[in-house]
Amino acid sequence: MGRYAYDLHMHSCLSPCGDGDMTPHNIAAMAMLNGLEIIALSDHNTAKNVPAIVEAAKEWGLTVVPGIEAESAEEVHLLCLFPTVEAALDMGDILEEHLPPIKNKPEIFGEQLIMDHEDKVVGSIDKLLINATDLPIEKIKALAEERGGVCIAAHIDRSSNSILSNLGFIPEELNFTTLEVSKRAPAEMSADPKYRYLHDSDAHYLTDISDAVWKITLEEKSAEAVVKALKEVKTREESHERT
After folding, report:
1. What predicted TM-score, i.e. pTM, was given to this entire model?
2. Is 29 exposed, middle or buried (0-12, 13-18, 19+ CB in 10 A)?
3. Topology of 2-242 in CATH?
């Protein structure tokens, strides 16, 4: 067992709202400088920059958890984390298919750039990624779990696009094991003993990426171990502690 500094929610330049400096190589380098050991890239409704950051992170010994920030039909953001790149890419393809047929306007929303691990542009996505899919929360959760992943209600302390702001409560039948709060959320937002909590940056700029403040206890330092830990029903004292 070990405890590892993490930030499991950040956006690359593939998310139109992500800064142009949020390239795979830059993200990995900043995470290393900040003392992080495990990170996840979770762009809006796609995982197409995940392969690049997995490769870029090898230079600094960082573990990358493949991720996506999915948006449900209820306009709720859901952090989906996967044990493999292939599972995340498959989930991303499904989410893109369920987005409305609205093209991105880079001059308004920002570019949606696919990069390699050396930050070279290798493509782009035409469909606007920051829209809601037509998939309800329970369907997105089921699709993530079918691919071996875990689905987490994202930034529940936020006043928009969170399950609490949009629904007003967390439905018991969804069986969430883990919830996410912003890294500076009030303590009461992570006090329900039924859940594990992640404290993430939701970084859109390099300066937003977390320092090594929050740690997660794992059997080993791997994406598979992160997903396994976050899927487990909480039966003991919270394992994500502030250092």
Report:
1. 0.95
2. middle
3. TIM Barrel (3.20.20)
